[in-house]
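Can anyone check this?
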Amino acid sequence: MDYAQRRQAQARQTEQAILRTALALMRERDFDQVSVRDICREAGITTGAFYHHFPSKEALLSKGFSPLEQYMEDALTSHEEEGTSLRLWLILSAYGRYIEEECGELSRRYYQRRLTSPKDMAPLDPARSIRQAILECLRQAMEQGTLPSGHTPEWLADFCYRHFRGVVIDWLLHARGYCLVDKMREDFVFFKSAFLNP
């Protein structure tokens, strides 16, 4: 590994350390009660290093879900050969667990910001890992003949993604007062009976 590659790897590690630390602090306190200095102190970095990676604390909102990709990859490892229903549930439950256990407060602030300051936020990316994982699973179901006719994998993936993102928003509106994954499981049972062949 040459010098430039080492610097890039170090920069990625520092950014991930900042995100992990911010998420950990936000599990204990509200977003507004966590300062950049708090994050830097806990992460063992300077404020200059923080601002090298993030122009502001608000910028954490757009990057705070990046560890979700690794979380989902870990959840799906060794389940590549499972049936569509199980793989789809693994995707959705990993998403729900990550939101519930890792970034509930950040999620609350993220959606609040999207609704109150939409011009400040980048458009939602349809290629986000969760939607892409759902789409890939449903395409495999179509190839295997377990996807009922009448709906394309693209339409179903979009519907599924929007619905379960809506469940997360409902959970946030209810001040995280119920088990998110349990609610997602209930809705998934309905989704499976309505849209997937046994």
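Reply from J.R.: I decoded it. The domain at 3-60 is CATH 1.10.10.60 (Arc Repressor Mutant, subunit A).
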